[in-house]
Amino acid sequence: MSSELSPQVQNQISQIQQVQQHAQALAVQKSQTDVMIKETEMAIEELNKSPDDAVVYKSVGELMIKSDKASLSESLKERLETYSLRVQSIERQEERLNSRFKQLQEQLQSMLGKGGGEAEEE
Questions:
Q1: Contact present, 43 and 57 (Cβ < 8 Å)
Q2: Can you tell me the distance from the alpha carbon of 105 to that of 91, in angstroms, rounded to the nearest whole number?
Q3: pTM here?
Q4: pLDDT single digits (tens) 39-96
Q5: Contact between residue 58 and residue 68 where contact means Cβ atoms under 8 Å apart
Q6: Hey, CA dihedral for 89, 92, 97, 100, is it positive or negative?
């Protein structure tokens, strides 16, 4: 028996690697979004501690613009909601990728099992 893998098996392995890379990219995105959520929650908490007449500023690009507490608070809450929705979206994508990964893995095992070769599993 040849030690080389068939084109179908090589294609299957390639698809599995692509799914793994996509999953890693999603994990990075989720981690970054989680950090932004924590920072926004801390900003909201600090803003809530300040008196209603406190002078507050918001960052716009490289500028700090004077703002009122209520509008800044609303803006931060909207940002937090956007980040939370993004995390939910990433989690759904992760679930689909995990399902696809399992499917591809089962197909690969089936292909290797049919060949009767002595292939190693990952």
A1: no
A2: 21
A3: 0.78
A4: 999 999 999 999 988 899 999 999 999 999 999 999 999 999 999 999 999 999 999 9
A5: no
A6: negative
